[in-house]
Amino acid sequence: MVATTTAPPPAYFAVGPKPHEVCCPYCKQKGKTITRRFLLSCCMRRQYCSSCGEYLGTYRRPKL
């Protein structure tokens, strides 16, 4: 029988427009997230782990 490994389920955080301190569920390292604009939009920012680079969540500015 062949053993298979499964990736952990994605864990998305409630994120804001600025980087913040998190404990990454993928690499278990604690640190500030890296924020990147998404599709040249000032209204959407993606948050990534600063250690392993995994995607953690997206901030969308509320529409007024």
Task: Give your account of this protein's structure.
The protein has 64 residues and is mainly β. The chain has a domain at 14-56. The protein has no helices and 4 strands. Strands 1-2-3-4 form a 4-stranded antiparallel beta sheet, with no helix packed on it. Strand 3 (41-49) and strand 4 form a beta hairpin. The mean pLDDT is 80.
Main β-sheet, in a few words? 4 strands, antiparallel
End-to-end distance, in Å? 56 Å
* Helix-strand category: mainly beta
**H/E element sequence:** EEEE
Share in helix: under 10%
Find the count of extended strands (DSSP E, 2+ residues).
Answer: 4
Q: How do the strands and helices of this protein lay out in sequence?
A:
Elements: E1 21-23, E2 30-38, E3 41-49, E4 55-60
Antiparallel strand pairs: 1-2, 2-3, 3-4
Keywords:
single chain; 64 residues; mainly beta; four-stranded antiparallel sheet; 42% strand; elongated
Give me a quick take on this structure.
The protein contains no helices and four strands. Helix content is 0%, strand content 42%.
